[in-house]
Every structure is written in C-alpha cells, then in structure tokens.
Amino acid sequence: MSTDAVPGAEIYTGQFAADPYPTFARLRTDRPVCPVSGRFDQYLITRFDDARVALTDPRLSKDLYGPEAHYLRFFGPNSAGLNRNMLNSDPPEHTRLRRIVSQAFAPRRIEALRPRVARIVDDLIDKVLPHGRAELMHDFAIPLPMTVICELLGIPAADHGRVLDWTQVIRTSGSGERPPEQERAAVQDAQARLYHYLTDLVRAKRARPADDMIGALIDACDQDGTLSGAEVVATTFLLLFAGHQTTADFLGNAVLALLTHPEQLELLRSTPRLLPSAIEELLRFDGPLPVASPRIATEDVEYQGVTIPCGAAVGVVINAANHDPAHFTDPDRLDVRRVRGPHLGFGHGVHYCLGVSLARMEAQLGLGALLRRLSGLRLAVPLAEVRRLPAASPFRGLLELPVTFTA
C-alpha cells in the first residue's frame, strides 16, 4: 500500500463535489488510510471499523489549542476567540464544558420545543406556498434551524438576519463567488463581527439576566466559576453554528436525495410512519459532515499498516465509513425502509453530537411538512445545475435548491 501523499487537487474536484462516493470507494479499497496534501496536510481514514475506533482513540487528540497551536492550521490566526470550545478539546476539559451545556439539550427539554418548531416550519412553508416555487435553502432549510437555535440561545429576533448573514459568509467560503483575497477578507470580517456581537450580547445579558441558554452559561460562569467569560462566548458560537449548519445542510441534501429517487419519495409520502427511520437513512446516505472535525496524533499511530506520525492531522471520513459495504448492504442505494443501523452520521464516543435530539426533531418536522404540504415537489433546474458548497468545504451541502410544487 502506497504511503505517498495524494494531492488534494486530485480528490477535491468539481466531480467530487457533485458525487464524492466513487472517490470514497476507491480510497476504502486501495488506500483506507491515505495521506492527502493541500490547504493543510492530513490523513484520511475511510473504513467503518477504523473510523469508529479512531473517533474514540485517545491518541488522536481534539485539543487544537495546546502549546503547538494546531488551530492556526485549520482556522487561521483570527479564530481563537470563537473556536476554543468543547469541540476542540479533550477530557477532562471537554467533559467539564459538555456537562454544563448538555442539560439544555436533555430529550424532555427538546421535546417541549416541538410545538414552537412546528410553528416555525409551518410559517416558513406558508410564505412560499402561494408562489408554487421556492429556493429551499434560503427559504426553508437554513432559516428553520437558525431561528430555533437563535431563540434557544436568546438572540433577539431583530438580530437574526445579520447573525445569519455572518454565518453564511463563513459557511460558503471557497465557493468561488469572490476572488480569493476578497473572500479571505470577508470571512475574517464576518468572524470579527460575530465575535464582537456575541461578546456584547453576553455582556448585556450579564447586566440584565434572561431565562435562555446564554443566561444559563453566564450563571455557570458567575455563580460557580465553571466557565470563563471567554468560554461563554466561544460556547455560544459553537452552539449557534453547530445548532443550524448541519441541520440546514441535511435538509437540503435529504430533499435532493428524495427528488432524485422518486420511488423513495413516493414511498415516504404514502407511508409517513417511515419518516424516523428515513431520517437515519438519509443521514447515512449523504450526510452534511463528510469528515469529522480534525484530530491530531499525539504519538505515532498505526492504522491498516500505515503509520500516522506524531503531530499529523487526521480526518475521519464519516461519509465514506457510512458507505462501507462491510457494514451496509448495497450501501450506495437509498432505502428508506432500511433497518436503522450503526451509522456514524452523529459521530461516536465522547464527541457524539450533543444536539442529536433537536436535530432529529427539526428534521422530522421539517421534512415531514415539506412532503405533506408541497405536492408535486420537483427540481426547478436540471440536477447538474444545482449549486453546491465547494469540494474542499468541511460541509456537504447546497448553495441553492430551486424547486417547484403545487399547494
């Protein structure tokens, strides 16, 4: 097995953005642990068994903010105020931060939000229903989870628009819509504006306490010192971004998958009880987070006979693992009747998705309402014209999803 690095340009092509799964299949078969060079060098792990082990391997650290300052490789010099959070930390630091936040995502608390989330879903559909057409990313998939997480955090409704604008600048970086220098400047500006906004919001809520998630984080900071002020801001950013990004991309990917598999779409419409299992299958089939957030080898680590050297970055390729034929029968086939299996779409181990209950509820309510209320749903453009996030993006999602339908 070759240990030479593959240039990222040979992997992250336009064709890869449209359909990465043939590339993932080749890597799983020929180079299941593959060094890749590019914007930053990393080793990709693509087989299910290896991925599951790697996600819990203590030798693969999530701490990017130690003495080596690995975060500079991934996020750049302006990101420390936003990204130093539980996603980029190891136990016991991760345990401390997650324990504080996890109470807000307890399943019964999330279930209590169901009527409000259903109302947001219906309001968004009501706005587009009379027109017979919509751009579902802008009109539905993005504002649904963004509205929910902003309300949970306690971000004032009047500020939702500009917060959304800043997060979308970060989300769509690399899309080619601006020259590279302008894009870097735009991303840095959006990060800075978001950081200062959240810092000011935390300060205002400390002065005038509120019964919301930011208020709870401030209490953990002020009453018992379990959070620092900087950690309140960084945790708020993580919850804001993680609380809407992947759900928005999932909804877009799921609708597109169903529109390109019309027999599955009709099966799901005719058998609504399949929706919970269909959500899991759609997540497995084309998940919004193709590669888990980066890990760093703290010593030489061997997988599949390949030595990953100390200090190297490691990317666990979730979407490749979820198409591993060693674990899933006919994995490249979308089957909403598939018995729910042990997919890795929500991660694995201590970094398993904290907001899984909320994400599932939003997905079920959102997708269910779209299928129920928008009959004749179909793409408004040829599939080849559907615009996607760039191939090298850490997210798999759509820039636009134009559709037509009847009320």
Automatic annotation (TrEMBL):
Q: Which UniProt keywords apply?
A: Antibiotic biosynthesis, Heme, Iron, Metal-binding, Monooxygenase, NADP, Oxidoreductase
Lineage of the organism: Bacteria, Bacillati, Actinomycetota, Actinomycetes, Micromonosporales
Keyword Cell inner membrane found: no
Q: What processes does the entry annotate via GO biological process terms?
A: antibiotic biosynthetic process
InterPro entries named in the record: Cyt_P450, Cyt_P450_B, Cyt_P450_CS, Cyt_P450_sf
Q: Which residues form a coiled coil?
A: none
| Xref: PANTHER family | CYTOCHROME P450 YJIB-RELATED, P450, PUTATIVE (EUROFUNG)-RELATED
Against CDD domains, the record matches this protein to: CYP107-like
The cross-references to SUPFAM superfamilies, in alphabetical order and at most eight, read: Cytochrome P450
Part of which pathway? Antibiotic biosynthesis; mycinamicin biosynthesis
Record has Heme as a keyword? yes
What Gene3D superfamilies is this protein classified in?
Cytochrome P450
Q: What is this protein called?
A: Cytochrome P450
- Any one GO MF annotation of this record: oxidoreductase activity, acting on paired donors, with incorporation or reduction of molecular oxygen
What family does this belong to?
Belongs to the cytochrome P450 family.
